[in-house]
Amino acid sequence: MLNEIDLSRADLNLLVLFEAVMRERHVGRAANRLNITPSAVSHGLGRLRRQLNDPLFLRTPKGVMPTARAMQLSAPIADVLARVRDVLSTAKPFAPASSPRRFTIGAPDGASAVFLPSLLAKLKRSAPAVDIGVRQVLPVAGELGSERAWRSAWADLERRAMDIVIVPTEHVPARFSKRLLYEEDFVLAMRARHPLAKNPSLDAYCEAQHLVVSLEGDPHGFVDEVLARKRRARRVALTVPNFMFALALLPESDLVCAVPRRFAAAYASQFGVVAIDAPFPLGQFRINIVVPAVALMDAGLAWLVGLLASAGPPLRRRASR
144 pLDDT exceeds 60? Predict the structure, then answer.
C-alpha cells in the first residue's frame, strides 16, 4: 500500500482514521468515534488521498461513500491495524482474569493426565479466557543419556513450538530453567486377577509378556536397563504410543505395563486395571517444569509456571496389591 519512501513519513493514525470513516460512512460520526474534530478528519483524509492517489470517499447528502479503491483497501488496512493492535497488546501488563492467551505445554500423557485436572480447575477460577494446548512428548528412541533423550523437547522450546515442557529428568541444559512439579515412581499395571498380582516375584515378572509405552515403537525402555543390571531380561510383546492406550488394552490381555504411580492411582480403576509395586526397585523421578530461562521475562509465561507448580498433585497414594 505504501512504498518504502512514503513509509518513512507514514502516519499510522491515518489508517485508524480511514477505518473509522469506512465504518461510519460519515465524517462527523467518525470524528466522534475518534474524539477529534470533523475538520481534523477532513484534513487527515486529504493527506491520505494524496499518499494513495485516490479520492477514497465521495460526499453524499447522507455522509460519504467509499470509492472502489477504498473498498479494495478496506480489508488490508483492517488486517494491518489488527496486527499492530495485537503487537501492542503484548506490552500491556499480563492480567490473568482477562487475558485471552493460549499456551502450549508438552508432556508425556502419564504426566499431563495427572496435572491437567487441577490446572484446568485453577484456570476456570482465575483465568477463564486462557486456553491450553497439550502435546505428547516422549524421550528420543534409543537415546540413553537423559539430557539428550529430551533433545527434541529442548528444540521445540527454543523455536517456541511449545511454551513449557514437563518431563521426568534432572538433566536440563543450562539455558533452561526448571522447577519441580512433583515426584513420581512407577508401578506395574495389569488386568484384575492377573497371575503376577498374586505372585509378584522377579522370575514371574521376567516370564510375563510386557507392554511398553514408546512414541516411536522402540521396545527398549528404562525397565530394561534396570533388568540388565540384574542380568535379567523380559519379552516386550507390544508397544503403544501413550499410557492411556496402554491402560485400555490391559484388561483384555495378559500384558504387564510399568506406568507412573499417580497416573495409575487416578485412572487404573476406570479401566478395570490393578497396579502393584514391582518386585524390584524401579527408581524415583522428579517431574520438572522446564522453560527457556529468557522466556520467564514474559509475565504471562512466568504466571503459568507458578500456577502449574501450585497445581501439583496431592501426596502420592500407594498402589493396591
Answer: no
